[in-house]
Amino acid sequence: MSNKQLEPLHIVIDFDSTFTKVEGLDELANIALQGNPKQKEIVSKIREITEKGMSGSYSFADSLRDRVALLSANRGHVDQLIAFLKGKISDSFNRNKEFIQEHAEQILIVSSGFKDFIVPVVQELGIPAENVFANTFNYDAEGNITGYDHDNLLSKDRGKVSLLQSLQLEGEVYVIGDGYTDYELREAGLANKFFAFTENVSRKVVVEKADHVVPSLDEFLYINGLSRAQSYPKSRIKVLLLENVHPHAVQAFKKEGFQVELLKGALDEAELIEKIKDVSILGLRSKTNLTKKVLEHPNAARLMCVGAFCIGTNQIDLAECENRGIAVFNAPYSNTRSVVELSIGLMVMLTRNIFEKSTRMHAGVWDKSATNSYEIRGKKLGLVGYGNIGTQISVIAEALGMEVYFYDTVDKLALGNAKKCSSLKELLNLADFVSLHVDGRKVNTNIIGKQEFSWMKDNVIFLNLSRGHVVEIPALVEAIKSGKVWGAAVDVFPYEPKTNDEEFINELRGLPNVILTPHIGGSTEEAQANIGEFVPAKLLQFMNNGSTYGSVNFPELQLPPLENAHRLLHIHQNVPGILAQINNVFAKYHVNIIGQYLKTTEKTGYVITDVAKEYSEEIVNELKLIDNTIKFRMLY
Ligand SMILES: NC(=O)c1ccc[n+]([C@@H]2O[C@H](COP(=O)([O-])OP(=O)(O)OC[C@H]3O[C@@H](n4cnc5c(N)ncnc54)[C@H](O)[C@@H]3O)[C@@H](O)[C@H]2O)c1
Ligand SMILES: O=C(O)CC[C@@H](O)C(=O)O
């Protein structure tokens, strides 16, 4: 990436809420007032004054005077603040440390905050103390802050303007900041451009005045053609997260600078077509269907990868995603344990008829009796589907003294003393408990219907925590009403409400000894937090270095980190000769290949090439023009 000549350029950067994520004085008050019963009140007063000053609705000099008067801080507090602020440097500044260090001489920190804490923090990224222009505190002999230097230009109204006038900088001056006082430099004709920095805070009055709004330092560097950590600023890449995925996921993407939108509920097809416009990364759970119709809509043209924040991926048209070069990832075992625990608990609740007893107790009925209450110990558990969940239930159920049998369409290793059945009928014939744990492929629709219920023992206990369409609901209702099924627990349904505001309508409502749960088998704090970390990590690996390890629809490649090279990712239809064509392009332009990786599925090929040379547009264009190319992208 060519680096624009910086020689005649000065970059003036604000400190509070720009270089760091927070306002230094607010945080100093927070530290100094620890243990003070009025801490909250005073800190919020200081915050209020800061905000008024920053948005230009209060004289700066008055705001500084009022805030320092409320502080009650000393040198020790300033030291604590420095340590705190070092951990609060804005993510995009940390990411671009190399640029900052390299051009430190041309970067000026101009702040109405205090050198006392600003200097040690900006020095972390290599900016020298003499390039920091800010106020200074006065201290008494005990080290208490007694005030500040009122002669300092930066303590006065329009202080930044006066300071810059006095500096008489030569060449272009670009100002990056989040406050109105930063914009004033442009207004006064002292800066050629003002960049409103919105990574930490966005103020309407400031944004409206800006030449450019930059959600990160990467964006500033990109706009100005300067060297940077991200080849294409992530603030330009949209991430859409649906169905209230865990906040960890939002943080993971925000930390890297992506533009993230989180929606609470699921979306139907039409809504998704609308919202997917310009989205590159999509996160969803079990209730949003990513269909062919959505994928082929021009709005979905930028989609690069999809994260299912759950185990099941039946809601996603995986084949169509593959055709379009979109890699799909899921969390294959982050909520397994939660489903297992609930299944075991439900079996106990059902055999003791606990829910009915509890409901009657709430109505004042004391019915102490052992009639129709049983232990699960010694009973036969029949597991349909012996995958991650089925096998874990098998182990725990056996530890509780159950006899475990299973049926799986694939030949599976029996754990412990579990016994394999050779047909579904054999399993259903012998089990006292039947629990379904098959995956949600279409072919599994209605695998349990009238006939299968007829094969079950009388008074069977039946559980479905897998997928709703796997069971024919009218047949289950019939089996419950006829007494064939003595108790049932159902967590998943052929149709599930999109949000918590929609009514749950199903024929199973109101039946005796039937526990209904709103698809919460995997909904524990632990599982959701795990998923919220696991899935973004996969998506970020794909975005940042091209790895597809763990993808459910894509050639899987685990790639080494990219060091001092460009990485070119070529996704194509799996037809003969593509690799040769790619390499012919490199040979034609005398580009030396440092590393090359290829993986294919029946339909798709994925070639990753690491090259040392500066890339040229011609190479990129020729690679894109190779017949049968689906997608092409470049990483540093
Ligand atoms: N209720 C919830 O909140 C919740 C949470 C997590 C997972 N799930 C669902 O639980 C199910 C199981 O999850 P998992 O992680 O164990 O999946 P898995 O893929 O590890 O296991 C599924 C097993 O079912 C077997 N199978 C598929 N079709 C079958 C059939 N017709 N008959 C017998 N065996 C069959 C497969 O061979 C596989 O061994 C999935 O449908 C998943 O979506 C539900
Ligand atoms: O959380 C969800 O929406 C789905 C949970 C579960 O069914 C899964 O597939 O992991």
Automatic annotation (TrEMBL):
Keywords: NAD, Oxidoreductase. Signal peptide: none annotated. It catalyses: (2R)-3-phosphoglycerate + NAD(+) = 3-phosphooxypyruvate + NADH + H(+); (R)-2-hydroxyglutarate + NAD(+) = 2-oxoglutarate + NADH + H(+). Residues 567-636 form the ACT domain. The gene is serA. Pathway: Amino-acid biosynthesis; L-serine biosynthesis; L-serine from 3-phospho-D-glycerate: step 1/3. Gene3D superfamilies: 3.30.70.260, HAD superfamily/HAD-like, NAD(P)-binding Rossmann-like Domain, Phosphoserine phosphatase, domain 2. Belongs to the D-isomer specific 2-hydroxyacid dehydrogenase family. Its EC number is 1.1.1.399, 1.1.1.95. This is D-3-phosphoglycerate dehydrogenase. It comes from Aquirufa nivalisilvae.
